[in-house]
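Journal club prep, shared notes

We agreed each person brings one worked example of a sequence with its structure written out as tokens. Mine is Exonuclease SbcC. I'm keeping it raw so we can talk through how to read the token line rather than staring at a rendered picture. Sequence first:
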Amino acid sequence: MGEPAEVELSLDDIRHVAAFAATCARRALPIFEASHPNDLRPRSAIDGAGSFAETGHRTAELRRLAWDAHKAAREVTESAAIDAALAAMHAAGDAFLHPLYSPHQVKHILGSAVHLALTDSKAVAEQIEWIDAQSNAIVRAVLRRFPSPAAGSTKFGILLVQLDTELRR
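Then the structure, token by token:
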């Protein structure tokens, strides 16, 4: 019997994933705002993710907020600020997580957490410990429904696999 085409994924599951992602992105936000205090796009994306986590309402506005955070990441030059903005983008984008049985979906589930950890290369272990403490049983259960990502060669890919392995325990 082959792999399933889709995984079971309720709106409540997605709301928990978005809340987790927003929590991770919110922790990274001060890094972005320290160097770009007048750029509210990442904050707005995180706020949108938080609203989705509470209400379950997916809107075109939320998708726009995710894209705006992505644009903010492309317009800054500091590596940590880029990762902080990308964490915000992933948080807002998690409202649109798909039930496709694909390791690519793990990138969406853990994207905010990975980018948080990448904001400070000297504190990755501490960030992973914090991320581990923030993930609840529902987030872990959702993650386990998807296939594990392949070993990556980039910093993001390596850390994604490391976090995935940690949170599946």
